[in-house]
């Protein structure tokens, strides 16, 4: 059996620009003694309690997300508005001074994520009330976003998945007008992907909103989808307060966007 030195193991487990928790490093065979020595010799530096990075290279939000996706037992993806902005679909950016990185996962993210000293805010979005199949794993719904040639890409939701994630937050943090603008930029979505996503979506509000928004833009991919093939639930849903009822999808929408 070939013995690997702790330095080699650290090099392999923790490339420059990424981070790792003590628990994860220990689970991969690195000894506590090796970690302590690396900290004392300043080969490692603490980013938060029990979270380390190699000394000398600043940590970016991409490095954090890439590391999180690598270490986590659950599927975590950059999704919603953040994914659409990175893919070039964002019509306008948030007025917030701190950039928001929206992460989508079934279970909550580790608390140390908010303790990192970065110029971004990580925002968790739970997916339990969105997908019947959890996070819809698979390359068909994921785009690899390259950020450094020597490190793994960050996994983003594909545009078809990201727009449904956006609609889940309407009207609380996303306005009807913003969603409408985003949809207008989506000229070439995949009907096949949309069919699979809509079948896996358990959120009636999201599905009704999607068809309402899609019919407004009237692109060719819209004509390949039949809303009657999906479970849109029953009864009226008040989404826009004091809005007008769309009689087809039984949702209230802003009066200025009706018709």
Can you offer a commentary on this structure?
By secondary structure, the chain is α+β, with helices and mostly antiparallel strands. It has two domains: 6-54; 61-257, no CATH class. The protein is 32% helix and 16% strand. The strands form four sheets. It has a three-stranded antiparallel beta sheet with strand order 1-3-2. A hairpin with a 4-residue loop joins strand 9 (244-246) and strand 10 (251-253). Helix 7 crosses helix 9 (204-217). The longest helix is centred in the last third of the chain and has 14 residues, at 204-217. The N and C termini lie far apart (72 Å). The mean pLDDT is 91.
Q: How many extended strands?
A: 10
The Rg value, from CA coordinates, equals: 22 Å
Distance between the termini: 72 Å
Q: How would the global form be characterised?
A: elongated
Strand content: 15-25%
Query: How would you spell out the order of helices and strands?
Result: HEHHEEHEHEEEEHHHHEE
Order of strands across the main sheet: 1-3-2
Total domain units: 2
State the helix count. 9
Largest sheet: 3 strands, antiparallel
Could you report the average pLDDT, rounded to the nearest whole number?
Answer: 91
Helix content: 25-40%
């Amino acid at each position: 059996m070939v013995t690997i030195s702790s330095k080699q193991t650290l090099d392999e487990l923790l490339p420059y620009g990424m981070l790792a928790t003590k628990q994860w490093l220990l689970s991969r065979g690195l000894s506590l003694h090796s970690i302590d020595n690396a900290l004392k010799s300043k080969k490692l530096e603490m980013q938060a309690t029990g979270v380390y990075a190699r000394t000398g290279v600043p940590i970016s939000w991409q490095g954090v997300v890439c590391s999180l996706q690598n270490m986590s037992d659950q599927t975590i993806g950059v999704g919603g508005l953040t994914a659409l902005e990175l893919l070039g679909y964002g019509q306008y950016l948030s007025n917030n001074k701190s950039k928001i990185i929206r992460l989508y996962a079934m279970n909550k993210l580790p608390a140390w994520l908010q303790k990192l000293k970065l110029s971004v805010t990580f925002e968790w979005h739970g997916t339990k009330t969105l997908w019947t199949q959890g996070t819809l794993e698979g390359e068909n719904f994921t785009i690899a976003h390259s950020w450094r040639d020597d490190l793994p890409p960050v996994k983003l939701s594909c545009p078809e998945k990201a727009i449904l994630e956006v609609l889940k937050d309407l009207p609380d943090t996303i306005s009807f007008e913003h969603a409408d603008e985003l949809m207008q930029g989506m000229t070439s979505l995949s009907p096949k992907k949309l069919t699979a996503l809509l079948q896996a979506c358990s959120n009636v509000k999201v599905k009704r909103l999607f068809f309402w928004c899609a019919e407004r833009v009237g692109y060719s991919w819209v004509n390949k989808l039949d809303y009657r093939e999906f479970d849109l639930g029953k009864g009226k849903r008040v989404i826009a307060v004091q809005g007008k009822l769309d009689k087809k999808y039984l949702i209230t929408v802003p009066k200025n966007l009706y018709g």
